[in-house]
Write a structure and sequence with these properties.
Residues 430-492 form the Transposase Tc5 C-terminal domain. With 492 residues, the chain is α/β, with parallel strands linked by helices. Helices cover 39% and strands 11% of the residues. The strands form four sheets. A four-stranded mixed beta sheet has the order 6-3-9-10, with no helix packed on it. It has a four-stranded mixed beta sheet with strand order 4-5-7-8, sandwiched between helices.
Length: 492
């Protein structure tokens, strides 16, 4: 009964003409004098592995029957084997002449199925690569649609072949194609101009590299904003194999979608600005009367949404870019956001003693050549997600998504990231983006420093605490549990 039920689903994609040859992929011997390119359609097999194009076979059949008259014994006059071999090298013996006679009698020659499958496989690879380059979404149903188009376009003689599940599985394994989660959607216009984006990216990097020698590495900066969820979680989890629905608990479902914005400033010498600019979403764009947690390494602002505004941008320049600790002559690389281009607004908050040159990355290029995007934000979010995960397990009642708790976590994380041990990590972001910054030696990422594999093998270093540790401080290198590290806001 079960087999009958399954057959109903299989009929939709079953290849009714399937043969074991459908699953064979191997190199086939071909004759160079008659094959223009390996894997041509409608090849004729004379002996196992010896394949000839249909057009050549038809030409040989026509030539073989071109002489008029008969011999005394009643047989038709035919070109000799030597003559046939001189004109058609694949005619090597009398058995192949007999093949030509059979094709002449039946009026057609059956194309070799395996060679047609090979041709379809190669053409399908070309078509799939083209579709991938164009950013198209592909599934097995689409592959069958492409196969049908290949068969029609090349007039391939192969009965009822649509590509069975097993044939497609073998094809995907052979050509290294597999299903993957879509990680990003881009507009059609943006994707269509990818070559132009790559050119613009390279041109900008080349231009910037010519300017870099005019500044000290400690005076070259990149700033960019990124949205962080109030409760950041990973998109995957371990669960029982075969589970169809995977439900996970968070303190607030809305906190997994509501965001705040962080705006770091990083230098090409590997240092991070000591202050992180943060914009929270607050009702009516105002903090409550009780205010918010004060953190010396955070510049905290708010708005009716977490999106930056022109006024907040001016605040960023006042309190971060033109902080007294900053160099008086600096180069700032930013993306194409319109507020970065408002020179009047920037000049209005620029101190008379400061000079700032701003370079804007062309639209669409930030993901390739902006250091913050290339190598920084991913590392920060990894740390935040890991801390959140530990908190969910060890201190489920701790409200990490609350305003002050969020700021406390950001302050702790930023303080750890400013450690000199992570300078090579920051430098590599610049190097990977294409700028003339020497590639640093092997280095550890923030997560590797903070959460070494054996971190849970020791107890918390805090006095009187015997809990399992979850993080290692980059400064004192002591290990602490979640409570003593984050909740008590570890400083050393």
């Amino acid at each position: 009964m079960l087999e009958e039920q399954l057959s109903h689903f299989e009929d939709d994609s079953k290849d009714l003409s399937w043969t074991p040859e459908d699953e064979e992929y191997h190199n086939m011997k071909v004759y160079p004098d008659v094959i223009r390119c390996p894997g041509s359609p409608n090849m004729i097999q004379f002996e196992r592995g010896d394949l000839v194009e249909l057009e050549k076979v038809e030409e040989a059949v026509a030539y073989f029957g071109s002489k008029a008259g008969f011999h005394n014994n009643g047989f038709r006059i035919r070109p000799s084997l030597k003559s046939m071999n001189a004109k058609f090298r694949f005619i090597k013996n009398v058995h192949r002449l007999q093949k030509l006679r059979e094709y002449e009698v039946f009026g057609s020659a059956k194309a070799d199925r395996r060679s047609n499958l090979e041709f379809i496989a190669i053409e399908l690879e070309k078509e799939v690569k083209k579709q991938i380059e164009q950013g198209k979404i592909l599934h097995d149903a689409v592959l069958r649609f492409l196969i049908a188009g290949i068969i029609k376009e090349h007039k391939i003689s192969i009965e009822n072949f649509i590509g069975s599940d097993s044939w497609l599985l073998g094809w995907k394994r052979r050509f290294g194609v597999s299903s993957r989660k879509i990680t990003k959607f881009v507009s059609h216009v943006r994707h269509r101009t990818r070559q132009q984006i790559e050119k613009d990216s390279q041109d900008f990097v080349n231009m910037t590299n010519q300017i870099l020698p005019q500044y000290l590495p400690s005076s070259v900066f990149n700033a960019d904003q990124s949205g962080f969820q109030l409760e950041m979680t990973t998109g995957r989890t371990l669960t029982l194999t075969g589970s169809k629905h995977v439900h996970c608990v968070v303190q607030s479902v809305s906190s997994t979608t509501h965001s705040y914005t962080v705006l770091p400033l990083i230098a090409s010498d590997g240092t991070l600005h000591p202050k992180l600019f943060v914009t929270l979403k607050e009702k009516n764009g105002r903090f409550p009367k009780k205010g918010h947690k004060k953190c010396s390494n955070l510049v905290v602002t708010c708005h009716s949404s977490h999106i930056m505004t022109k006024e907040l941008t001016k605040e960023f320049f006042r309190k971060v870019v033109f902080d007294p600790s900053m160099p008086k002559d600096a180069l700032l690389i930013v993306d194409g956001w319109s507020s970065w281009n408002d020179r009047t607004a920037i000049d209005s908050v620029t101190p008379p003693s400061n000079k700032l040159k701003v370079l804007q990355i062309p639209a669409g290029c930030t993901g390739h050549i902006q250091p913050c995007d290339v190598g920084i934000f991913g590392g920060i979010k990894k740390v935040v997600k890991t801390l959140t995960n530990y908190g969910q397990i060890s201190n489920p009642e701790y409200r990490m998504q609350a305003r002050d708790e969020t700021l406390k976590m950001l302050s702790l994380v930023w303080r750890q990231l400013c450690s000199p041990k992570l300078k090579d990590w920051v430098k590599y972001a610049w190097h990977a983006a294409g700028y003339d910054i020497a590639r640093p030696p092997n280095f550890k990422t923030p997560a590797e420093h903070l959460f070494p594999r054996d971190v849970a093998s020791t107890e918390c270093s805090a006095t009187g605490c015997s809990k399992v540790s979850c993080a290692q401080c980059l400064y004192c290198e002591q290990r602490f549990c979640f409570k003593d590290f984050l909740i008590k806001d570890h400083k050393c």
